[in-house]
Amino acid sequence: MFLSADLSAGDIILKLIQVLGGLGLFLYGINQMGDSLKAVAGNKLKSIIEKTTNTPIKGVLVGTVVTAVIQSSSGTTALTVGLVRAGLMTFPQAIGVILGANIGATITSFFIGLNIEKYALLFVGIGALMIFFIKHEKGSEIGKIIFGFGMLFFGLDTMGNALNDILKAYENQSYQLFTFISDYPILGLIIGTALTALVQSSSAIIGILQTLYSQGFIGMFGAIPIMLGCNIGTTITACVACIGGGVQAKRTAFVHVMFNVIGAILFMALLWPFSQLMEIIEGSMLSGLGPKPKMSIAVAHLIFNFITTFIMFFLIKVLVLVATKLFKDKPDEEQSILNSLLDYSLMEKSPSFALSFAKKSIDYMCKCVTEYVGMTREYSFDKEKNFENRPRDLEETIDELDKRIHDYLIRLTLTDLSQYNSHLLSAYLDAIKDLERIGDHCTNIFEFFDERYATGKELSEDGKQDLNQLYDTLEAMLNKTFEAFYEWNKEKALEVDVLEDQVDKLEAVFHQRHVHRIDSGACSYLNADHYVEILSNIERMGDHLENVSECILSSFHLQTEPAKAIE
User: Fold this and answer.
1) Domain range enclosing 41
2) pTM, to two decimals
């Protein structure tokens, strides 16, 4: 390649550095803006997704809004996969959110179309001042949003100017290149897909495309295939995220890919009439929306995603059927609840969501503990009760949950959590420790009764009656504690303390009654083996349940209205 008379070799290298630096600033700005928007939205964003996706049409609306907020369709898809895996959203509802995410992804291109690059440094300055001088957490995050918004446009302007200089320095070659791409639309589709997969941001590539189109280097007929390729390329993130994931994750990623591939095929088939339509729209309808060339690409992007969403919405059942057929459930392969709920990919995308999924894992741990306590009670009165290996499996599951959730929460401490969510995380760490100890006490009681049954020792009728009453109170306390934990309910947590006092008093009374039975000869020392230890283990279970309720109550010290975790 010969050098242009206008630019030396050193100038070209400098311009390429400016293109690369501008791209970096753009990506940093859009990520900063998205992360801070998520931090400000926090639990509200989480609550919106949870409560308003009970139908596919609501899912589309929520997907559109959430993607517009976090500025990442890939991020929305990742959050959706997590919700499906946690059982908080059905697969058809998830499809609705994914469809909406593609519409929401067009917001950035409309921002770019407004052509407000000349105010970029103003936004950067205002944002920086807010970050450094506003100490309130939310005010600082808003400053980061403004700062990221400015960096986005400053990066785009830097990249666009340098790219324009390079292309104009090789004007003839540039026109020949883009004419060739326009003559072979499939090549534009491949280029758009590859560049977006490489950069991991369809917004960045579409921003470059808008610049090229506004500068006249490529026409609408050549620009549309690249835009379509950008939509296919953005699915790479979801595909990578589902590697090693469960069946539902693979199905969700498949639908995301099919949406963009089917849409691209449809619009490639209609490329000529669609490009003609866009040129008519550009000439007649965009005069009030800003500079026409950049905005026309944004409108084309919106039309593509809107029409594809409209078509695919009526094919949701077909998509579900195809995805289910391709990625079948494996009944012989039990899926770990940990793999379903502890989604490490969510930590960077949305720490508050990751914390909610940790809460779901602890909810499951509570259910395991409930089942283990129930089995322990049954075995205490019926030596013929055959649980096979279930008690041992429950003990191992509770221990594994304790370890895995603990490691997950510790990793989560490295993310940018709000003060309240950090306090919740600490409460969760305390709770899993107490739940694991309850499991240990159940194991102790099982072992005590194994020894008793092996040597033919039976409980006296009075001993059975006392133990049964103590179990009644413990189970009432366990049910109330876990109800409070599932709902994160302050009022129910307050009721646990009363029940714990009852457990303590009953244990003390039944201990004395046991001693009295031995002294009176109603029960021999031999038959009394471990009875005191059994009572003591049940009383300690009550202590640990009270600790769990205290974890709930402690979280309400930081806010007046409780923010319930995802159910």
Assistant:
1) 9-326
2) 0.58
